[in-house]
Amino acid sequence: MTTEILIGQDMYNLDSATTLPDSPERKAMQVPEPKTYHILTVVPDAEDQFESGLIKADSTIHYEEVLTPVLFVMKLGPDAYKDEKRFPSGPSCKEGDFVIVRPNSGTRMKIHGREFRIINDDSIEAVVEDPRGITRA
Predict the structure, then answer these.
(1) Strand partners, 72
(2) What is the mean pLDDT of the chain?
(3) What is the DSSP-derived secondary structure letter of residue 53?
(4) pLDDT tens readout for residues 54-78
(5) Which residues face 83 on adjacent strands?
(6) Which of 42, 45, 60 is nearest to 110 (CA)?
(7) Which of 74, 58, 59, 137 is nearest to 106 (CA)?
(8) Are the C-beta atoms of 105 and 119 separated by less than 8 Å?
(9) What is the helix (H) or strand (E) element at residue 111, kind and residue range?
(10) Is 69:102 a contact under the CB 8 Å cutoff?
(11) Number of alpha carbons in the 13 Å side-chain half-sphere of residue 105
(12) Cα four-point dihedral sign 93, 94, 99, 103
């Protein structure tokens, strides 16, 4: 009897199934690859306490993460910022930038507890060097 959790499309063909990742390295390979003009971003972790030292409720942390205007750029799709008419000054951001977007922008997903978003290249409104202290108004 197997104790592995199998992932597959056909429950009668176990040879086509794969197992859930069992190491951090294999989990990291599950991050989606953005296509066309899309950008893969990750939501930075929300602070677990206020500046005063008071601990935040879990619902408050969740609210801050869902509605955050700050995202971290992980990967650019192959066609991101290629349209010279729409982006005459070149790309708005690059991998490793913290960017400002409208809250709830993009396609939201959680992978192993971390929230990621796939956004369009024209969703970037600003780039910030240090996002600490930036919150939704």
Answers:
(1) 42, 98
(2) 84
(3) S
(4) 999 989 888 888 889 999 999 999 9
(5) none
(6) 42
(7) 74
(8) yes
(9) strand 107-111
(10) yes
(11) 23
(12) positive
Q: Are 128 and 98 in contact (CB under 8 A)?
A: yes
Q: What is the DSSP letter of 44?
A: P
Structure tokens at 137: 């108004």
Bridge partners of 137, per DSSP, are none
3-state secondary structure of 55: strand
Q: What are phi and psi of 75, to 5 degrees?
A: -145, 145
pLDDT in tens, 17-64: 566 666 766 665 678 899 999 999 999 988 888 889 899 998 988 888
**Phi/psi of residue 18, each to 5°?**
-120, 165
Helix boundaries (H) for the chain: 24-28, 58-66
Written as six digits, the tokens of 60 are 């408050």
Distance CA 67, CA 48 (A): 16
- How far apart CA 74 and CA 72 sit, in angstroms, is 6
